[in-house]
Amino acid sequence: MRRMSGTVSYDGTGFSGYQIQPDQRTVQGTIEQVLQRMHKGEVIRTVASGRTDAGVHGVGQVIHFDTPLSIEPAAWKRALNTLLPPDIRIQSIAEENPDFHARFDVEAKEYRYRILRKSDEDVFRRNYTYHFPYELDLIGMRAAAELLAGEHDFTSFSSAKTEVLDRIRTIHKLDFEEAGDELVISVEGNGFLYNMVRIIVGTLLEVGTGQRQAEDVIRILETKDRNAAGKTAPSHGLYLWKVTYKKP
pTM of the predicted model, to two decimals? Predict the structure, then answer.
């Protein structure tokens, strides 16, 4: 058996999230259907760096799978992209050591959130940006972001559906970039809780519109209560941008 890894991009608009679900179109399910076809009916399971929700896009998702087939990486990429639908693309593929794990070997992840700031919604970007036509105090948002950086218990910034008990995570970077009529918020950390990035974005937007003060972030973290933080930003503005792995 050979262990292969792949970097996958996908447009999340037409999927019910990444993780396979019965009777739903998912990214994992679509990839595994193609792998099963290539393996003449044999079920091939994939493991991803993490799951993304319905509507969330992937630029640098990483998966691994085991295969008995002796196909070179370049041929794997061609074959998969030929069989996959156009809203999923394999960007690269490589053979890995047998102990490589797409989920457990992750060192850091970067997510980016795109906010459209023009007055009118853009029909061509409605599935790829969150339309937010209000004035924003970027100085206040940056001050709040500085308070979120570092190691904290992010219980207040995770969905009530979060199942893991350890809610301590480290944010390495929380940056803002103005790109034309868009504001892009980049968040990089050693891991993220369920809906964590979207709740951070929603809270920062409330700071930006004056509904909260930057220093409120300290209290929100300390309360460890989801109700203390802001609204969850919509899924369609979010992108899993990059996954970084520990060096062997």
Answer: 0.95
Domain of 172, in residue numbers: 108-245
Tokens of 232: 């969850």
User: What's the rounded Cα separation, in Å, for the pair 121 and 237?
Assistant: 13
One domain, residues 122 and 220: yes
136/157 same-domain check? yes
Sequence-distant (≥ 6) Cβ neighbours of residue 67 within 8 angstroms: 1, 2, 4, 35, 39, 44
Q: How confident is the model at residue 185 (pLDDT cuts 50, 70, 90)?
A: very high
* 128-132 CB contacts, 8 Å cutoff, 24+ apart: 128/57, 128/236, 128/237, 129/182, 129/236, 129/237, 130/233, 130/234, 130/236, 130/237, 132/205
Q: What angle do CA 6, 10, 15 make, to 5 degrees?
A: 120
pLDDT of residue 163: 77
Active-site residue numbers?
Answer: 53
Same domain, yes or no: 226 and 161: yes
